[in-house]
Each structure stands twice: as structure tokens, then as C-alpha cells.
Amino acid sequence: MFDVRCKGSESELSECSYSDYSRCRYYDMASVICTQYAPDLVMDIRLFKQSIKVDTHPLHHLRCSFEERCLSPEVDNIWGRSGFHNRHLLKFTSRFLNKGAVTFRPHIDKSSWQWHQCHEHYHSMETFAIYDLIDNNGYRIAHGQKASFCLEDSDCEPGYKKNFNCTDKGDQGITVNCADNYSNRIDCQWIDVTNVPFGNYSLRVDANPLRNVTESDWLNNRAVCEIGYFNRDDIIVRGCTTDPCYQESFGGNSFGHCCQFPFVYNGQLHYQCIQKNNSSENNGNNSELNNENRSWCSTTNDFDQDGKWGYCSEKI
């Protein structure tokens, strides 16, 4: 099997998507180990929505954040200069609950963990989560610079015991039915929006985005909130979702929302991205879609009714 891509919810390898069957050279082969039990991270959408805010901080109060590269790159050019500089930070809480059957553990050996002097603990995963701010064309205009994470049991559901704590030098992980809570009061739990224009955006959080740790379900790892950012003192949060994302979209008119399959187009159901010819049938005022010959999808289940869409690949 070539170009195998699995979502993590398959019961056997044949259910994964692939391009073709053929004989493999011995150095191109890979093995697959199936397991009955795996962790499953789920974002606390309610806390995420309640916690979103914008705070302003003097730059000289953000020394640890600067050392850990949690601010926008342009700060490198002004750090240490005379004068008073502020940073406007879009803050939010990310609480990840493990609803799987076994503990979520870092994928790298403890000997490779990074010691962070400012926070005085080890970080065991470089890319445990990513934070993106998406504009109305579906493109990322700012992102969180949080370089790495420490995994621990911040709180647990009744009847379950904490097993991991970042304050010592012991093991790290997230126990079943426990959560790792990154409060909006924690350093680097933000996106630096100092130079971001006011407007409407999508704030997106992806847990375990590189799929470095096996989970029983990767499709519930993303949370998205629609926000209005029109002044330095307040954020309007219009709605948040944890819809599974099988295929990202880019451009179009849907703020980078995920493709929805199946979707109705010209009265027919489509179960994958489709190629648009240059006809303008049923596209209404979507002149950009009418004039393009690129693969696209609907970002709602009924394009004929809603007219919401995006391209299935970022580049032509």
C-alpha cells in the first residue's frame, strides 16, 4: 500500500486511505502495530469560550516569554531598546481532558526533555498543541509561539487520582479522566496580536497536531471559536465548536472552516473535494469559485443553500 493515511479511528489497515497497491522495496517498508487501548484528548470547549480575552502588558514585564520565544518575531528588533513598548496578547485557557482508555504519555524519551529555567520544570513535548488565528480568507495571520509543554494532571474527575506533576522531576502525562489545564494566566498561553488589524477571525486550537502520540480518535482534537476583535480592550466571542476536521479549507468565504462531507452541490451529494469547471451554474455571486479550476469543498452540508466554500489546498 502506498501513501497510506489513517485518521486513527480505523479498525484495520484496509480502512485507511491509500493511493495504490504494489511491491515495496525493503527499505521503503514500515510496520503497523494495532492496539486495543489508546488515550483520547478532548478540548474543554466551554472553558475555552469563557476564557478568551485581550490583555496589554509592558514588554519589559515579559522577560521569560521573550526568552522562550512566545512573542511575535518583530520583538527581537525592539527588545532592550529604550522607550516604553506594549504587547497586546489574545489570551485563552486550553484544558485537555483524556477520555481514552490509557494514559497520554510524551512520545520522546525523558533524557531528551528540555529544562526551562524561567518556569523551573521540564517540557516533555515540543508540539503538544498549536494556536492559530485565521482570517476570513482561511489563512493564518498569527499563531501562538509557545515552544513546548509540560504534561501533568491539573485536575481529575471524581474517583480518579492525579499521577503527574510538573513541579518535580518525575514522569509526565495525562491520566485517564484527568485534564491538563493551561490557564490564560500562564506565560505563553496566548497569541501576540499587537500588529494584527481589527476584524473578524477564527481562533483555533489543535491538540497533538502532529499525531506523535497515538489516540483512539484524532477527529475531536480541534476547537474553534469565532471572534470579533475591534478594540484593544475587548473580544466578542460569537460561537465555538469542536467539529471533527477531515479536510481543512483555504481561501473561499468560510474563515478556513473544515470541509463538511457529504455536502450537497447541484442537488447531488459529494463525499470528497471536487474539481470545479468554469461553468457558473448555481454558484450565485461566488465569482472567485466560478473562475477557478481548483479542487474545493463546501464548509456546510448544503452548498446549494448556504454558498459557503473553500479550496482543498492552500496553493494553486
From TrEMBL:
Q: EC number(s) of the enzyme?
A: 1.4.3.13
Q: Does the keyword Secreted apply?
A: yes
Q: Which reaction does it catalyse?
A: L-lysyl-[protein] + O2 + H2O = (S)-2-amino-6-oxohexanoyl-[protein] + H2O2 + NH4(+)
Q: Name one Pfam family in it.
A: fn2
Q: Which UniProt keywords apply?
A: Copper, Disulfide bond, LTQ, Metal-binding, Oxidoreductase, Repeat, Secreted, TPQ
The record's PROSITE patterns line, in alphabetical order, gives:
FN2_2 (PS51092), LYSYL_OXIDASE (PS00926), SRCR_2 (PS50287)
Occurrences of domain SRCR (ranges): 1-35
Which cofactor names does the annotation list? Cu cation
- Residue span, Fibronectin type-II domain: 254-314
Q: Which GO terms describe its molecular function?
A: copper ion binding; protein-lysine 6-oxidase activity
Disulfide bond positions: 6-16
Q: Does the keyword Oxidoreductase apply?
A: yes
> Per the UniProt record, which residue ranges are transmembrane?
none
Localization of this protein: Secreted, Extracellular space
Query: What's a single GO CC term here?
Result: membrane
Q: What family is reported?
A: Belongs to the lysyl oxidase family.
Q: What is this protein called?
A: protein-lysine 6-oxidase
